């Protein structure tokens, strides 16, 4: 990863800690898994944290408090909140508004968890996952805001505008505005062209034998939905 760093996992449940640590290991990343907020806060003085996965329902200082401490210690740090009880859209939106990069509900799906970790790391400019280097955004791509890069990544992964709105707890109109802004900044006229630019700049990955232009063409029906 760019600048190094550890994935910090804070969860009371040992099985959950093992699951997350195992998925982090498949990405070739270092992991420190602890059970309490006290241990998490102590780790801030010992590790350079690149991403944190934090349970909301921690005793004492809860997950929101840990997230606040992380953001005070590290200027730009993605935090993924995990919950087993706050499952409604209002609670999820509140966590995102308070600064969480993502919000997952237990039981965790390993494939989704890994995808969310990768996406958060890409959004915040960490350039090495699985030992592969991903260039930092340059040129027009560097002008995109973190939210615009996130939406472009989701477009490149084949999500429709409606799916992106639901995933990010935004209104479809807000997503449409972000898309129009990123198209303008990239100097392109369509979502398909923006996706091609994202692949060429390394913001998202394609298969080893896949033409980015061909990939965008396959996504075209979704990109125009």
Written description of the protein model:
The structure is a single chain. By secondary structure, the chain is an alpha/beta fold. It folds into two domains: 6-132, 3-Layer(aba) Sandwich (Rossmann fold); 137-223, Arc Repressor Mutant, subunit A, CATH 1.10.10.10. 49% of the residues lie in helices and 13% in strands. The protein has ten helices and seven strands. The strands form two sheets. A five-stranded parallel sheet has the order 2-1-3-4-5, with helices on both faces. Strands 6-7 form a two-stranded antiparallel ribbon. α4 (89-97) links the parallel β4 (79-83) and β5. α6 packs across α9 (191-200), α7 crosses α8 and α9 (191-200) runs antiparallel to α10 (212-223). It is globular. Residues 130-138 and 206-225 have low confidence and may be disordered.
């Amino acid at each position: 990863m760019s600048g190094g760093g550890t994935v910090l996992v804070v969860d009371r449940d040992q099985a959950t800690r093992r699951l997350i640590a195992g998925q982090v290991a498949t990405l070739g990343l270092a992991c420190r898994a602890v059970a309490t907020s006290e241990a998490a806060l102590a780790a801030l003085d010992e590790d350079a944290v690149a991403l944190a996965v934090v349970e909301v329902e921690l005793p004492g200082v809860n997950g929101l408090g840990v997230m606040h401490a992380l953001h005070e210690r590290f200027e730009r740090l993605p935090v993924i909140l995990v919950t087993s009880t706050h499952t409604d859209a209002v609670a999820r939106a509140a966590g995102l508004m308070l600064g969480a990069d993502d919000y997952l509900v237990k039981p965790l799906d390993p494939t989704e968890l890994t995808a969310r970790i990768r996406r958060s790391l890409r959004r915040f400019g960490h350039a090495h996952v699985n030992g592969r280097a991903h260039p930092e955004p340059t040129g027009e791509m560097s002008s995109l805001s973190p939210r615009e890069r996130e939406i472009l990544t989701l477009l490149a992964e084949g999500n429709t505008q409606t799916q992106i709105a639901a995933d990010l707890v935004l209104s479809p109109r807000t997503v449409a505005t972000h898309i129009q802004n990123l198209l303008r900044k990239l100097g392109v006229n369509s979502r398909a062209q923006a996706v091609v630019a994202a692949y060429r700049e390394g913001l998202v990955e394609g298969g080893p034998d896949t033409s980015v232009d061909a990939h965008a063409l396959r996504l075209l029906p979704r990109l125009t939905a």
